[in-house]
Amino acid sequence: MNAVNKNELIGRKASAYAPASTGNVSVGFDLLGAALVRIDQQPLGDTVHVEFSQQDEMINSGEFAHVCPTDKMQNLAWIAYVLFRSKLSNSDEYPAVKMELVKSLPVGSGLGSSACSVVASLTALNRLFELPYTDQALLTLMGEVEAGASGDLHYDNVAPSYFGGLQLMSPHESAPVINLPNPDSWYWVVAFPGFSLPTKEAREVLPKQVDKSVAIYNAQYLSAFVAYLYQGEQTLAAKTIKDVIAEPYRADLIAGFKSSKQHLLEQGALAVGISGAGPTLFALTSDLAQAEKYKNYLEQNYIQQEENQANKGFVHICQCAIQGAKDIELSN
Ligand SMILES: Nc1ncnc2c1ncn2[C@@H]1O[C@H](COP(=O)(O)OP(=O)(O)O)[C@@H](O)[C@H]1O
Ligand SMILES: N[C@@H](CCOP(=O)(O)O)C(=O)O
């Protein structure tokens, strides 16, 4: 491409919205994740707008812009862009990029906030550059950037945020994710208490090895969960959600988690667990009226009410989002 054509690209725009996700879903540590959509259809995720421009530029906007690093080289959305570009064989043929990250999720929340920025950024860029990367290549880039933030490679946030649905990571590189049947009868009540728990920190408390009995329980719960979903037994599947790997070590890091979990299970919740690495709690029910009750309870009892918090807590009723960033089209 010659210089004139390069200039002609200036002003071309693309955008992407990446939904929040809940990693692990308790029963599949680092292997299972669900994309989330609020039932009131309000956004719960990040949006990225990109545009070919004369010079590189990055701006943060949105409700949680204040929690984003101001130095663009520290911002995962921009780090993703640098990696995206570094692996393009014809990178020199394209102009600079102006990026706006509309940050709608708190950081260190357990809702895949870092993944949202990475997925929205790479999806928007792939559109802007006219799809140089396949889904699989893009997923690999997403995993690489996410690993830089959390300390370990795990796809359980980026995969659902990009593809939507309830995604199980496959051991086969050629088909890295399995889209499980969508548990459409479930309402996910997600409560972010208003304080952050960095994923890196929540991974450091986990033991490096697990007992044989724990490995067997984990295999039993996860395999039964998947089998029930394929049998259409969504309630049984939800009741099979149990975390024997991370929750025993992380629960004490999250003020109010144990008491809220006990209360919600007594009220009939199908499952209650830590969303991702926490501190967000999720509770499942197939009854919307119950979901509203859990929401009220969590607003009163799980959300931290202190003044001067950097983040405000929130509780939302969600469902598993069918669409991820890949299929959500935004008008610029
Ligand atoms: N755009 C971004 N969105 C979220 N986190 C970001 C972003 N850019 C840089 N970061 C940094 O990456 C780290 C993400 O923390 P992490 O606990 O993994 O978040 P989460 O669990 O919410 O995904 C934080 O140190 C945060 O400051
Ligand atoms: N599998 C990861 C999930 C981290 O999710 P996040 O939303 O807290 O970043 C883990 O449990 O560490």
TrEMBL record:
<keyword id="KW-0028">Amino-acid biosynthesis</keyword>
<dbReference type="Pfam" id="PF08544">
    <property type="entry name" value="GHMP_kinases_C"/>
</dbReference>
<comment type="pathway">
    <text>Amino-acid biosynthesis; L-threonine biosynthesis; L-threonine from L-aspartate: step 4/5.</text>
</comment>
<dbReference type="InterPro" id="IPR036554">
    <property type="entry name" value="GHMP_kinase_C_sf"/>
</dbReference>
<protein>
    <recommendedName>
        <fullName>Homoserine kinase</fullName>
        <ecNumber>2.7.1.39</ecNumber>
    </recommendedName>
</protein>
<keyword id="KW-0067">ATP-binding</keyword>
<dbReference type="InterPro" id="IPR014721">
    <property type="entry name" value="Ribsml_uS5_D2-typ_fold_subgr"/>
</dbReference>
<feature type="domain" description="GHMP kinase C-terminal">
    <location>
        <begin position="247"/>
        <end position="303"/>
    </location>
</feature>
<dbReference type="Pfam" id="PF00288">
    <property type="entry name" value="GHMP_kinases_N"/>
</dbReference>
<comment type="similarity">
    <text>Belongs to the GHMP kinase family. Homoserine kinase subfamily.</text>
</comment>
<comment type="function">
    <text>Catalyzes the ATP-dependent phosphorylation of L-homoserine to L-homoserine phosphate.</text>
</comment>
<dbReference type="InterPro" id="IPR013750">
    <property type="entry name" value="GHMP_kinase_C_dom"/>
</dbReference>
<feature type="binding site">
    <location>
        <begin position="106"/>
        <end position="116"/>
    </location>
    <ligand>
        <name>ATP</name>
    </ligand>
</feature>
<dbReference type="InterPro" id="IPR006203">
    <property type="entry name" value="GHMP_knse_ATP-bd_CS"/>
</dbReference>
<dbReference type="GO" id="GO:0004413">
    <property type="term" value="F:homoserine kinase activity"/>
</dbReference>
<keyword id="KW-0963">Cytoplasm</keyword>
<keyword id="KW-0808">Transferase</keyword>
<dbReference type="InterPro" id="IPR020568">
    <property type="entry name" value="Ribosomal_Su5_D2-typ_SF"/>
</dbReference>
<keyword id="KW-0418">Kinase</keyword>
<feature type="domain" description="GHMP kinase N-terminal">
    <location>
        <begin position="75"/>
        <end position="165"/>
    </location>
</feature>
<dbReference type="InterPro" id="IPR000870">
    <property type="entry name" value="Homoserine_kinase"/>
</dbReference>
<dbReference type="InterPro" id="IPR006204">
    <property type="entry name" value="GHMP_kinase_N_dom"/>
</dbReference>
<keyword id="KW-0547">Nucleotide-binding</keyword>
<keyword id="KW-0791">Threonine biosynthesis</keyword>
